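tl;dr need the bound structure. longer version: we got a ligand ((2R)-2,3-dihydroxypropanoic acid) that a collaborator sent over and nobodys looked at where it sits. i said id run it. heres the input, straight from their email, havent touched it
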Amino acid sequence: MTVKLKVWVSRPLFPEVLARLAEYVDVQAEAVERPHSAAELKEKLAGVDGAIVALSDRVDASVLEGNRRLKVLANLGVGYNNLDVEALTRAGVLASNTPEVLNESVADYAWALMLAAARRVGAAERWLRAGQWAGSRMRFDDWLGLDVHGRTLGILGMGRIGQAIARRAAGFDMRVLYHNRSRLPEPVERECRATLVGKPELLRQADFLVLVLPFTPENRHAIGAAELAQMKRTAVLVNIARGGIVDDAALAEALRDGRLAAAGLDVFEGEPVVHPDLLLLDNVVLSPHIASASEDTRRGMANIAVDNVLAALGYGEAAGKPPTPLNPAVMNRWKAPKA
Ligand code: DGY
């Protein structure tokens, strides 16, 4: 009898996706969604050959210490600031993420937040649900928001998701400016109708500023009090990237004092806890990190995680060729037993 390899899945996932995994390996899937402590992660990962984890699972050197078994760790997300990839590489563990599959859904959602924040959709709905419309004398000049069409869209971080956001701007007849570490190839700039500018100019000119940066130590508080002070008072800020890129306390202050018109936020410093000052404001639309959460995209992400695990463990048609590895060179060391 051959003993099956073991894979731990740190949260409930789509049953049919787990069933596909279970055709090859012994699956231990958590039945309840909850964060895991470093000690729990260490224990779980020590007893398996592969794992599927998500953003709230922080895998660092301490979690991997002494682990001689784990071969592959697939992250359910394109962002992987929860993983210490260097530590995984040192431990001989292949890490993977889920790029591309979510680009269009996240871009859709950035637009949802832009539109909702500009046109006060959240506040208006709360007012209606509270029964305040019936019997009120709503004036012709109540609930005025900001137009989106014809304005300037600024994008900070112009990877594939930023580009997908930019392409949608043509339908709103917007001017598109972007700031990025490197300039996009000219055909891509043309397709996105986007012009590269410096960060100060982006801050000054954008009517809508959308953040699509990866979270790195350098990007922590890339938008803080100083940056907010450079923006138009009529501007709208949208963060679909990562909490911590924006200084949420400074943002709440700017929104409260009318130094920024509105914001749409899907991610927060210290999430799932949200800065209490943001919760008090009506000119901010808040959502619980769901930019990629469409039926098709979350299934696609889960399937890519499974593809990476199976391929890394040597199963299926793509055996030995995980589709989206973060540290593929690790696999060259697998022929030798783990040190
Ligand atoms: C990602 O993929 O990085 C998302 O933020 C997680 O949903």
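gonna send this back to them w/ a short note. The mean pLDDT is 96.
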